[in-house]
């Protein structure tokens, strides 16, 4: 089977296995509406997270990491009012500290892959309307060397009529261990999404327990909506 049809939107997840060590934070941070953050790493979150965020709010976080490095933002949790166009409650992520170059807009429960700035500055802005719905978001920022960007980070929102995407390092080298990539594909209303894998080479296992590509119907990583889970070297 060379392709798959699904109602829009569609969510794809690539997971590569690695060994992780778990550490518990000594205390939970208190999240407020916006702020100025500097340093190698830290956390930001919606006001009152993990409680329900307030209505009619506009919160702005300005992140700065050391000169010569770039900002990497990883969403650990996101739960905002859902809308295909993210018109009501949403989080915008910008390159730099102005709203000229937007990296992405996110809402619902779709958790994007790592977002990377082109400089040592990034701005995050959350907007909510009168109808509050959800527990907000929490994200971690960290500093990275600019030349690491292409090797480690992947995923994102794809909303053009057609396009392509690939795993990190393809086709020159193997994808890195321990990476999770999420692509969110959105088609126009009342249209289908056709997905074709031209090349496929993921660690083989009879049950796809280690490295795998999963495809979900809809914009959430929900096993009830999973179309398939694939590994090995045969295109689905």
UniProtKB/TrEMBL annotation:
Pfam families: CUB. PROSITE patterns: CUB (PS01180). Disulfide bonds join 154-181. Residues 1-23 form the signal peptide. Residues 33-144, 154-236 form the CUB domain. It comes from the Eukaryota. SUPFAM superfamilies: Spermadhesin, CUB domain. One of its GO terms (molecular function) is heparin binding. Keywords: Disulfide bond, Repeat, Signal. InterPro entries: CUB_dom, Sperma_CUB_dom_sf. This is Procollagen C-endopeptidase enhancer 2. The lineage of its organism: Eukaryota, Metazoa, Chordata, Craniata, Vertebrata. The gene is PCOLCE2.
């Amino acid at each position: 089977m060379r392709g798959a049809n699904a109602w829009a939107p569609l969510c794809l997840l690539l997971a590569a296995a690695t060994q992780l060590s778990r550490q518990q934070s000594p205390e939970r941070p208190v999240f407020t509406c916006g702020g100025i953050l500097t340093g190698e790493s830290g956390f930001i979150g919606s006001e009152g997270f993990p409680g329900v965020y307030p209505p009619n709010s506009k919160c702005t976080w300005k992140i700065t990491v050391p000169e010569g490095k770039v900002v990497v933002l990883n969403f650990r949790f996101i739960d905002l009012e859902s809308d295909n166009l993210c018109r009501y409650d949403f989080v915008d992520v910008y390159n730099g500290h102005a709203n000229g170059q937007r990296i992405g807009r996110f809402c619902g429960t779709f958790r994007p892959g790592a977002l990377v700035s082109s400089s040592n500055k990034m701005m995050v802005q959350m907007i909510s309307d009168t109808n509050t719905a959800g527990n907000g978001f929490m994200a971690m920022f960290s500093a990275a060397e600019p030349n690491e960007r292409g090797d480690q980070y992947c995923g994102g929102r794809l909303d053009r009529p057609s396009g392509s995407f690939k795993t990190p390092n393809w086709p020159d080298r193997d994808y890195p261990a321990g990476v999770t990539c999420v692509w969110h594909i959105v088609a126009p209303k009342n249209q289908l999404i056709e997905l074709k894998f031209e090349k496929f080479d993921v660690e083989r296992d009879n049950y796809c327990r280690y490295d795998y590509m999963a495809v979900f119907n809809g914009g959430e990583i929900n096993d009830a909506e999973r179309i398939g889970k694939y590994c090995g070297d045969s295109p689905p």
